[in-house]
Amino acid sequence: MSERLIDALLMLRHMLLGDELTPLGSLVLDEMNRAFCADVRQMLDEGKDPMAELARERERRATQ
Prior knowledge:
single chain, 64 residues, 3 helices, 77% helix, 6% strand
């Protein structure tokens, strides 16, 4: 199992208690949502298409 996957699973363990979000889980998801919205807003402000940017990023990661 890759180290990144193990780290992600450990983080999820602290974010969930059964099928409920923990306070940490709620905070992490809220911060991720805020960061995502800020990124999209910046792209729009710069006249970029967020969907095209996402496609470019996906392709860049696939070729790494």
